[in-house]
TrEMBL record:
Location of the Tetrapyrrole methylase domain: 5-209
Pathway(s) it belongs to: Cofactor biosynthesis; adenosylcobalamin biosynthesis
Presence of the UniProt keyword Coiled coil in the record: no
Keywords assigned by UniProt, alphabetized: Methyltransferase, Porphyrin biosynthesis, Transferase
Superkingdom of origin: Bacteria
InterPro entries reported for this sequence: 4pyrrol_Mease, 4pyrrol_Methylase_sf, 4pyrrole_Mease_sub1, Siro_Cobalamin_biosynth
GO molecular function: uroporphyrin-III C-methyltransferase activity
Alphabetized SUPFAM superfamilies for the sequence: Tetrapyrrole methylase (SSF53790)
Any GO BP: methylation
Protein name: Uroporphyrin-III C-methyltransferase
Source organism per UniProt: Thioploca ingrica
Pfam families xref list: TP_methylase
C-alpha cells in the first residue's frame, strides 16, 4: 500500500447537484472514503461512486460534541496511517464550521502525510443566493451562535450578521428535537439591545433535496425568536439595521466623491 494521503471534500448542501467535479473525482479514485453527511440519501449515493465507503463514528452519547469530533479525527488518522488515498467527505464546505476536518488536516501534516482540503458550497453560499444578499454591499459577519454570546463578539449592526447553529445556542452536546431552547431567549435579548425587538430577522434553511423541496425562509421580529421552531440546519440571518454613515474626511483623503 502506498503511503497515506488525506483529501477532505464537501458535498455542498443540495443532494448531488452541489458536488464539484474535483470532489467527485477524488471520491471516485480514493482507496477508501469516510463520510459524515447530514442526510441518508447522500450517504447512500456516495456508495455509487466508490465501493469502500464507511461512515465516520458519530457518538451522540458523549457529553460534548468536541469529544465526538475528536473520535472522528482519530478514525481519519488511523485510516491515513494504514496507507492509500483516503478521501473524507463532509457536507457543505468541509472547512466551514467543521472542526474535525481542520484538525484532521493539521494532525496528518504534523505526522508527515500529504493532506489537502477542497472547497465546497456552504449553507452561507446558499443563503446569499436564496435571500438575495450580496456580502459586498454591506459587509458580512458570520459567527457560531453560542460563540457570539459567550465571547461577546463585537459586531456592526449596519452590516449583515449571520449566526450559525441556531438550534444549539448554549448546548455543547447534541440536538434534541422539541427540547426547550432557553438560549434563543438570551440570543433574542442580546440582539434586541442592538437592533430593537421589532427588527425583522430570518430563520433560514437551504433546501437539501432541491427541486423537490424549497428553502425555508421564515421572517419574524426578534421579539418572536424565543418561541420560533428551529432545527439542526437553521441559520439566523440578521439584516443591517440602517445604512452605515459615510466618513467624508476619509473620502476626501482617498480623493473620491459620491
Ligand atoms: C456543523 S455546521 C456545518 C456547516 C457546513 N459545513 C456548511 O458548509 O454549510 C452546521 C450548521 O450549518 C448551518 N446549516 C447546515 N445546513 C444548512 C441548511 N440546509 N440551511 C441553512 N443552514 C444550514 C446551520 O447553521 C447548522 O447549524
Amino acid at each position: 500500500m502506498e503511503p497515506g494521503t488525506l483529501t477532505i471534500v464537501g458535498t455542498g448542501i443540495q443532494l448531488v447537484g452541489h458536488l464539484t467535479l474535483a470532489a467527485q473525482a477524488w471520491i471516485k479514485e480514493a482507496d477508501k472514503v469516510l463520510f459524515a453527511v447530514a442526510d441518508p440519501v447522500t450517504a447512500k449515493w456516495l456508495q455509487t461512486l466508490n465501493t469502500i465507503v464507511e461512515p465516520l463514528p458519530y457518538n451522540t452519547n458523549n457529553q460534548r460534541r468536541r469529544q465526538t469530533y475528536q473520535e472522528m479525527v482519530e478514525c481519519i488518522l488511523a485510516a491515513v496511517r494504514q496507507g492509500g488515498n483516503i478521501c473524507v467527505v463532509f457536507y457543505g464546505h468541509p472547512g466551514v464550521f467543521s472542526d474535525p476536518a481542520h484538525e484532521a488536516i493539521k494532525q496528518a501534516r504534523q505526522e508527515g502525510f500529504h493532506a489537502q482540503m477542497l472547497p465546497g458550497i456552504s449553507a452561507e453560499d446558499c443563503l446569499f443566493a436564496d435571500l438575495g444578499v450580496d456580502p459586498g454591499r454591506n459587509g458580512c459577519q458570520s459567527f457560531e451562535a453560542t460563540d457570539f454570546l459567550i465571547r461577546r463578539r463585537r459586531f456592526d449592526p449596519t452590516s449583515v450578521l449571520i449566526l450559525w447553529q441556531l438550534a444549539m445556542v448554549g448546548n455543547l452536546g447534541f440536538f434534541k428535537e422539541d427540547a426547550p431552547s432557553p438560549g434563543l431567549t438570551i440570543l433574542a435579548e442580546v440582539l434586541g439591545q442592538h437592533y430593537g425587538f421589532k427588527h425583522e430577522v430570518i430563520i433560514y434553511e437551504a433546501a437539501t433535496y432541491y427541486p423537490v423541496c424549497q428553502p425555508l425562509i421564515k421572517p419574524l421580529p426578534l421579539s418572536q425568536l424565543p418561541k420560533a421552531k428551529v432545527s439542526e440546519i437553521s441559520t439566523l440571518y440578521v439584516p443591517p439595521q440602517a445604512p452605515a454613515t459615510l466618513d467624508y474626511e476619509m473620502m476626501a483623503r482617498l480623493g473620491i466623491s459620491l
